[in-house]
Amino acid sequence: MKNQNELKSLLISINHRGYPAYKDTKGAYQFNGYILSIDHVQGDPFAAPSHISIHVSGKSAGFPEDFYRDRHRRVAIADYLTRAFHREAESFNHKAKGSGKSGLISTCRPGQEVLERSACVIDGKSGGLVFRLDVGFPANGRSINSTELIKILYDFLPICVKNALFYHPERKAVYESVLQLSDDQRAIRSLLPELGLCAFVADGSVLPRKSGVSELPMDNATVFASPESVRVTLDLPHRGKVTGMGIARGVTLIVGGGYHGKSTLLKALELGVYNHIKGDGRELVITENSAVKIRAEDGRCVHSDDISLFINELPNGKDTKAFSTEDASGSTSQAANVVEALESGTQTLLIDEDTCATNFMVRDELMQSVIHKSQEPITPFIERIGGLYRDLGVSCILVAGSSGAFFHVSDTIIQMDRYVPYDITAKAKEAAKDYPAPVLKALGEEKVTAPSFQRIPLAGRDFREGERIKMKTLGKDAFSVNHETVDLRSVEQLCDSEQTAALAQILKYAEQNLMDGKRSLQTVAGLLAELLEKEGLDLLFKRSTAYSGLAMPRKQEICACLNRCRFLKIK
Ligand code: ADP
Ligand code: MG
Fold first, then answer.
1. Which residue lies with its CA nearest to atom 1 of ligand 1?
2. Which of 206, 264, 285, 398 for a ligand 1 pocket mutation test, highest count of atoms within 8 Å of Cβ?
3. Per-position b or e across 167-204, b if 16+ CB within 10 A of its CB
């Protein structure tokens, strides 16, 4: 391997030459304590910045073995190091000057969630780590200014690497708090099934956010305090005994007046499938891993979904056992979202009336007496919610402040009153007795059988080897493949644009490797989840050099993504 002096000589020799001469720097170089690898060199100063990776051996990094042996700890520590590196690198960003993206030092900046990312990967055996970042190679106009690049590679980065990526004994307490939190979060996750819970919200949690555009915790919020009747005490490895609200499997209804904190609680549960960093306020709000937020999504495409559980005999005669549309209505989109969530293996549905199609959820008695069942294609969700749990084991946490009909089908009813939850199950059930309408009484008695999940994506055609494919990520909300957009705005549990970027790569991987025209979509998604679990995001870089910018999505979001590709043919 070449050493750092050889790279320096090369850089000095190409100073002032045309920008393409930077391409010669591609390769790996031994620096003091790490290897610097220039993986991809940008074509010109205005193009996307160059990819660089830093490889630190386990011995040089010096982290104790119990920091990285277990996957959850590895992910937590990698997240911490990524944040640390970002803080270090920020002060050097654009300190080197020039045209276009010259001097840009771009590193991943995680939000409130702790995710597995391609930015920083720690080896579980050796404790060696790879850190990836992007650097704008400096130029004046279009001629190389390697003096400035030398500043970045020889003055700035060594400081960042040393301060962020090497073990510092004096930070022991900080590392420990990161690791211990991840242990406790993991412990809660594994306790949920044993206790028959689908979620846990610790007392003292801060659920609301600072604003609609900030994910930071609200100052002076009313902290969460569980109602005694549903309070559980968990014994965690580090914090010891922690109390909070246990949301039991089954049907849980969250009611209350407008503005009393219902949606805020549900939102916290939606994101509770991820771990949160210390200080977030939702560190100990944990929802079982497969929970899926369900909402209406007018206009989405649907590929051959069996939505007959909810919709039958449409006036246009369309088959609802294999329902396809380019433009779903509120109710059909929500039906598709439920069925696809079941297909993805979810155990818990999360629903907020604020984002539902009303006619999908309920139909009141008066309407039922005027419009006969045979004239209404929709079997409302309220008639299925009980059976979904009884027959398929799928729980539901539902925010519904406007229809008392759900009292009949709920196992637990929580009222949010000025941001404080109360268990009103007994009271509400008592009141519901006075409304013994036969339609309501019969709710949910019909057996629910699982929809058919036999849909097969046709063999991949969009990512043919050797063809130039233009892929672009548009923040968290969408990505495009050759100018065709995959709209993920309504996939509300995507929490990071790097997950969206990963989904685009996962789609490509699935088309190239797994979709053979025989495997069902469910099988493909299952294989993807398995492979990603085993190999991490490296799976996606089998044929190319890895780069920063991807974060791990769940299987549920992978399914959601495949389902929203208009160009994918699924029959
Ligand atoms: P709902 O869904 O019941 O109408 P929201 O959950 O949307 O109510 O909350 C209404 C407002 O109250 C939001 O602006 C939210 O940030 C704020 N809020 C929610 N929970 C709390 C809390 N625990 N303490 C202080 N403010 C809160
Ligand atoms: Mg609301």
1. 259
2. 264
3. eeeeeeeebeebbbbbbbbbbbbebbeeeebbbbbbee
Query: Which SS3 state, helix, strand or coil, does residue 378 take?
Result: strand
The pLDDT of residue 190 = 98
The Cα 187–Cα 89 span in angstroms is: 34
Cα separation, 175 vs 177, whole angstroms: 5
For the Cβ of 207 lying below 6 angstroms from any atom of ligand 1, the answer is: yes
Q: Which residue has the tokens 């604020």?
A: 354
Confidence tier at 40 by pLDDT (50, 70, 90): very high
Check residue 445 and give its pLDDT.
Answer: 80
Strands (E), 237-373: 240-248, 251-255, 275-276, 285-287, 292-294, 302-305, 323-325, 348-352
Counted residue by residue, the chain has a size of 571
Is residue 207 within 8 A of residue 280, CB to CB? The reply is no
Buried b or exposed e, range 377-394, using 16+ CB within 10 angstroms: bbbbbbbbbbbbbeebeb
| 321-355 pLDDT, tens digit each | 999 999 999 999 999 999 999 999 999 999 999 99
Pairing of strands 348-352, 292-294: parallel
CA distance readout (Å), 231 to 243, 244, 245, 267, 514: 7, 5, 5, 20, 45
Q: Considering only CA atoms, which residue is closest to atom 15 of ligand 1?
A: 208
pLDDT digits 0-9 by tens, 429-469: 999 888 766 566 567 788 999 999 999 999 777 887 777 88
**Cβ–Cβ < 8 Å for 251, 386:** yes
